[in-house]
Amino acid sequence: MAMADMQISPTDDPRGSPGKEQQAAGVGILLQIMMLVLSFVLGHVLRRHKFYYLPEASASLLIGLIVGALANISNTETNIRTWFNFHEEFFFLFLLPPIIFQSGFSLSPKPFFSNFGAIVTFAIFGTFIASMVTGILVYLGGFMYLMYRLPFVECLMFGALISATDPVTVLSIFQELGTDMNLYALVFGESVLNDAMAISLYRTMSLVRSHASSGENFFMVIVRFLETFVGSMSAGVGVGFISALLFKYAGLDIDNLQNLECCLFVLFPYFSYMLAEGLGLSGIVSILFTGIVMKRYTFSNLSEKSQQFVQAFFHLISSLAETFVFIYMGFDIAMEKHSWSHVGFIFFSILFIGVARAANVFSCGYLVNLARPAHRKIPLQHQKALWYSGLRGAMAFALALQSVHDLPEGHGQTIFTATTAIVVLTVLLIGGSTGTMLEALQVVGDDHETPLAENFDGNNGYIAPSYDEEASSGNRLKMKLKEFRRSAASFTAIDKNYLTPFFTSHNGDEDEEDDPMPSSRRGTFRGRG
Amino acid sequence: MAMADMQISPTDDPRGSPGKEQQAAGVGILLQIMMLVLSFVLGHVLRRHKFYYLPEASASLLIGLIVGALANISNTETNIRTWFNFHEEFFFLFLLPPIIFQSGFSLSPKPFFSNFGAIVTFAIFGTFIASMVTGILVYLGGFMYLMYRLPFVECLMFGALISATDPVTVLSIFQELGTDMNLYALVFGESVLNDAMAISLYRTMSLVRSHASSGENFFMVIVRFLETFVGSMSAGVGVGFISALLFKYAGLDIDNLQNLECCLFVLFPYFSYMLAEGLGLSGIVSILFTGIVMKRYTFSNLSEKSQQFVQAFFHLISSLAETFVFIYMGFDIAMEKHSWSHVGFIFFSILFIGVARAANVFSCGYLVNLARPAHRKIPLQHQKALWYSGLRGAMAFALALQSVHDLPEGHGQTIFTATTAIVVLTVLLIGGSTGTMLEALQVVGDDHETPLAENFDGNNGYIAPSYDEEASSGNRLKMKLKEFRRSAASFTAIDKNYLTPFFTSHNGDEDEEDDPMPSSRRGTFRGRG
Question: Which residues form a coiled coil (chains A, B) (predicted)?
Answer without folding.
Answer: none
